[in-house]
Amino acid sequence: MGIERMTFVEFSGSSQYLDDVLERCLSSGVFQPENAVKLSEYSIGSSPLLRNPYGGLSVKINEMASQLRIEPQYRDFQRLPLGSNSREDFVEQAHEYLNILRKEYPQYFERKNKLNDDIVSYKAALEMLQKMNNPDINLDSLFGGAFIKVRFGKLPTAGLKKLEVYQDKPYALYELSTDLGFTWCIYITAEQFHDETDQMFADAGFVRLRIPDYVHGNATDAVTFVSGGLEQQIQEFQDAGKKIDTFVEREREAFLMVYSKNKFLHDAYDLRKYAISIREVFHIVGFVTTKRKDNFLKLFEGLDIHLTARPAEDDTRIKTPVLLKNNWFTRPFEMFVQMYGTPSYNDIDPTPFVAYTYSLLFGIMFGDLGQGLVIALLGFCLAKFKKMALGGIMARIGISSAIFGTIYGSVFGFEHLLDPMFHALGFAEKPIEIMHSDTTNKILIAAVALGVAIIILVILFNMCIGVKHRSLDRVFFSQNGLAGLMFYGSVLFAVVMQITQGVNVITTPYIVVFFVLPIAVMFFREPINHIIALRSKDTLIHKDKTLMESTVFKKVDMDITELYTTKFVTARFGRIPTDSYQKLTFYMNEPFMVYPVKSETDYIWIIYAMATTDKAQVDAIFNDLYFERIFIPSEKLTTNEQAEAFIKACIDTGGNAAIPVDAEAEKKKRSAKSIVHQLFPDGISNFVIESFFEMFEVMLSFVTNTMSFLRVGGFILSHAGMMSVVMTLSAMVSTGASPFVVVIGNLFVMCLEGLIVGIQCLRLEFYEMFSRFFDAEGTPFEPVVTSYIPKAS
Amino acid sequence: MAGYSENAIAAKVKALYGKRLTENDYRLLLQRKTVGEVAAYLKQETCYSESLGEVKEELIHRGQLENLVRKRSLDIQIRLLKFGFSDNMFSRLYVAEKEIQQLLFALRMLGSESMARYITAFPAYLDKYVSFDLFQLAKISDYDQLLDIVKGSPYYQILGPFRPVSSAQNIDVMGCEAALLNYYYTRAFKLIRDRFKGETQVDLMHILQSRIDLHNVMLIYRMKRYFKMPPDEINALLIPYKGLLQMSLIKRAVEAEDAPGVLDALQKNQLVAGRLLRSPPEVKLEWTLESMRQALCRKVFRFSIQPIVVLFSYMTLLDIETANIVNIIEGTRYNVSADEINRLLVI
What we know:
The complex is a heterodimer. Chain A has 26 helices and 17 strands. By secondary structure, chain A is α+β, with helices and mostly antiparallel strands. In chain A, the strands form five sheets. In chain A, strands 2, 3, 8, 9 and 10 form a five-stranded antiparallel sheet that branches. Chain A has a four-stranded antiparallel sheet with strand order 5-6-4-7. Chain A has a four-stranded antiparallel sheet with strand order 14-15-13-16. Classes of the chains: A alpha+beta, B mainly alpha.
């Protein structure tokens, strides 16, 4: 339980392997890349992200998918023969493949579309023939005339009236039938007048319909012929549809493999946005869970790249993402924790705490065996079938509700249904009779007591986190640390003693030790922290000393005194800029030796030594490299310890070891003056005002947080009250309607009160508990994966 | 192309400019007697405090102090360019300028067979920015090795033709310089023309042109003074782009008899003439042109609302400030009087 351990992984290698690495990272599904620019050494690199070479292919594939009506989804593309040699080949061959599809599928689609058009035309012809309404019209003789023009079509009934105006024009109109405001008709005109007549009819709204060429003979024969043709066309249309289906089925697997491979390569290429390239060398950094580290690293075997993996806590430059790790019972409650925020990598995961307190509080506030079991069952179903995290929570709090319901003896509002069981167990009556007037007070007091216990628990929790972070402030001085606990505990103790035993424990020493002292500590928390910060600087120096002793001096195994006093050897101590230190590689053949003593960001402290005869030459080199020399006085060279001490002092004081005593004293005096400023950076008056109001708020929050738990008792009563209303209502209605009232009443209470209690519990978690210990400054761990299901547009 | 980050850069740049060294700072700096005191003042009283954090005033080496001041200028400029303009084009251009400087430096040292000086003097902090390995560059002993190092970069094509045919032949450093600078300015002008229009383009062009003037005029002057070079040869070495000075003026300067003739020719320009009068005798021309550049940049810095113009003019002003500080450090180190150093400063 807690927070999954993470490993920080760093890849670097020749740019030719960049895509291989990214693809393996993506396919692993356990790697979260971080932007390499976040690391200062890579800040100047350029991003290798160019235009995604798979973008064009993606567009083409998606178009094709919608035309072929293939739903994009994942297919294992390992067996795909396309582009097995290289990525460029894949893009090229995939384009070719899609081009072939593009050429092939129109044959089927065009055939189907043509048949569709034919069917429409046949249907229209059939309709026209039926509208002719005269079986004797011979179509061949009607339309075959050489000098007359015959037009068939429909005319709006209103247009027919308009034509009456043109009765003197050279045309003949035959009305065939009328239909929905239209009159089906034929008009005949001489060839030389057809332009004028057509125009006239068009103005009147005539819609000309052409009798297809394949229609011959009289209308009755034609209808028979066209009907037969239509049936045949429909048959062929269906066949064409089947052919298309066969075609799509044949290509589906290959197409989906191309889709999946392209999507994968596309997404992997996009990961380049996290990479940095410096002089043809790429760098990728990221996190993987330590549990999966070994399997993940195995993926990169065989690639000529440099790979380092180290525990995430060793490198604090990038915030480590957090993956919560919980058991089956507590896991669903991660949802509530994530709603508030993610804990930091070095924090404690509050999920188990939430799981147990939330279940407990919900159970207490919503205690009903029947309703609890219903909620648990519903939650179980939601979790099982809908994969809802809330379902898992409901299942757990439902069980808790059922347990407390058993204690309260309440089943669907029937308060005495479990009495036989209690009698069988040897109880005279059920253990807790909520509605009894004596119980009410006890419930409220118990609720506050529960609140007190939880608040104390939370403060202890916060102190544990403080210990983990080595934060004295958090453990001792904060209102959620020892100071707050002492104050809160002692006040409660005094109140309890007064009420229960009638003993007044508040004496002067009690007040001084348990009230004044913690309040004073909380009040002066800020300056105390400043003092600690000042003191810790000394600790740092101490750390440096040990570092120096353990690593440098022992490593080079050098006696400084001997080095300085040996005849024919000259040694120099001082510091050299880091840039110049790197340049020493150019002087490998020069007659000197360098011992690094300590490195700082911009400088390295070194001792270099050479034969006295080469002194001038070597000194010139070091002078050119901006070496800053410090003389070691001869009196400091009597023993090696003295020399070491002098060198350490020089490093600690930045070369000021030989400052005269007066100057030291002056320095101390100056620093004493500024101490007030260091303790109260915003001034003493500001500090007093701020701290006063802060203390006021702290006191208030102790009271309000404790009182807040009264709601736990309140809801126990309210639940029982609401169920008694339901029962009263059911008693008021007829015997037949009574079960309905009970069922509906129960449903109502479960929905309304279940929701309210759920929210109130969450409120207690977030406000009364989380605010005291949970910083929620972490970022969640989200490894990169390819999503093969297209996003809904 | 104005994006949000660019506007933010304009504000950031203005804030940085607000922290520049003032006349009062320069006055107080000139009163310092040792390099350590100069370092102490810069560290304690100015915006250089962060960059000089680890410096021990009692120990600091002159060269290292100069290095740190230059490094600060580079860091600021790269940072502004990189984060203000997401496509890196400007930071690449800037890095190209630094690369050309290093190549020319190495070429000069190679030409005078003093690569040892290059090793001690090359700024190692630049190594992480440039496209070739500076440490490898410092190791070269002939022209072919230099070509090997820049292989794959545009410099290979540019420097290829200048490869000496025999080892006895001298390296044509001047020719290399002209070719490299020509490449740089062509790239810079193209970038500006492609990206900007109207007033922004004009302002940026002016800033660039003022540098061309500085380079060309100084080149003419030096060639006349030290080599008595004929006009044809000088013309071949000039950057073939028009600066802010009239072409006729440059032409006249090229054709002048000798170095004083160059000064006379340039006097024809009122602006140059006015400044020449006030310039210190040792560095008449350089000071004049540099102060003209400074005036131009100050003007556009104040009046332009375009982030890129503000940034470019600030970068020039920062370079001038850096040069001033280096002058003060060197002057102090070699016991030059405060008055003399003061005259060299472009304030």
